[in-house]
User: Fold this.
Amino acid sequence: MKKIITADNTESFLNLEVNETYHSQTGAVEEALKKYAEPCQIKERAKTGSIKILDMFFGLGYNSAMAIQVALESNPNCQIEVIGIEKDPEILAKIQEVNPPIAFFQYYKQLNKNHLELRQGKVIVKVLLGDVKDKVKELKNQEFDAIFYDPFSPKTSPEMWTRELFIEMYRVMKDSGVLATYTCARMARENMAAAGLVYDDGPIVGRRGPGTIARKWV
Ligand SMILES: C[S@@+](CC[C@H](N)C(=O)[O-])C[C@H]1O[C@@H](n2cnc3c(N)ncnc32)[C@H](O)[C@@H]1O
Assistant:
């Protein structure tokens, strides 16, 4: 793993095995805000008083740390629960080496392979460490208001974009829930639709194509 600085001047890593970065090179922290927190309406949902987020492919945790920050700015009393899924303890260790401009991220520094849970005020973050295919089975039906779906690309990791995994996402999402991802790849969208999700374009951020947002057909 090699550290890189993305275009918004925030840090990420290049994974040398898949030869992909953990975040968009157009801006790691910008991506967390614009491709995940904003399209999932975290600010608005926080006003209801509680919010539960699934941070799929947790990595350094930027996406959920940003969402917590946005939610607390919107409603400091909001009860927030984040469940993250990640298989690689090495990337969790790298949390110590980055300092994104996200105030809540200071508490993420408590996380590592031996300490997978943090509590801070009304916020709980739990990381399920292991392969996504096993860990999703531990999630309850209709738990989540928002799902951040952030694996490596469909090109290098097609097994992370299957109908089977999106069926699990459908199962754990509330009827009012939303899933956001950074890509508009056809294969990803077709498998979402095959799982019963209805998708639309997400925001265009940087120079890349739109992301995708998906909801349940209810
Ligand atoms: C694009 S990165 C995620 C970046 C992350 N959201 C962040 O903000 O740092 C994809 C992540 O998927 C994880 N991953 C790859 N295969 C996995 C699997 N089978 N189960 C769980 N996580 C996996 C990788 O270790 C990597 O951290």
The first helix runs from residue 28 to 37.
